[in-house]
Amino acid sequence: MKGIEIILLAAGGVIGTFLRYRIAESQIVFGAFYANILVANIVGSFILGAFAVISQQWNLDAKYALLVAVGFCGSLTTMSAFALQSSTMIDNKQFGLLAINILGNVGLSIGAIFAGRVLAGLILGTR
């Protein structure tokens, strides 16, 4: 790995981590459901979907994937926090919230990938 690649990866990681921290500390609550992690995962997935189309259409160098896809989106989205939140819901016997959490994080994140790809395709005129 070259020096510029490490710098791009680190820069994306720092920015994504900071944004995830800001989202995680905010009060995003729907009833009894804390949606902070869900929001971070959806936003990161949307950005990753859009970046995938932009990267392909503009034939971007792979080092930009280190910045955006691996660094930024990788540190913004968080499987470990999702898993911890889910296990806490199991411990507290909150099975309804657990189902919402799993379906929301997985389903909406996949939906956000597609939405990001579609929006980027429309903006770039490839759809």
List the helices and strands and how they pair.
Blueprint: H1 3-25, E1 29-30, E2 33-34, H2 36-57, H3 62-76, H4 79-91, H5 95-124
Antiparallel strand pairs: 1-2
Helix pairs in contact: 1-2, 1-3, 2-3, 2-5, 4-5
Task: Describe the fold and architecture.
The protein has 127 residues and is mostly helical. It has one domain. Helix content is 81%, strand content 3%. It has five helices and two strands. Strands 1-2 form a two-stranded antiparallel ribbon. Strand 1 and strand 2 form a beta hairpin. Helix 1 runs antiparallel to helix 2 and helix 2 packs antiparallel against helix 3. The longest helix is centred in the C-terminal third of the chain and has 30 residues.
Key traits:
mainly alpha, 81% helix, 127 residues
Brief write-up:
With 127 residues, the chain is mainly α. The chain has one domain (3-124).
Radius of gyration: 16 Å
- What's the total helix number? 5
Number of domains: 1
User: What's the β-strand tally?
Assistant: 2
Overall mean pLDDT score?
94
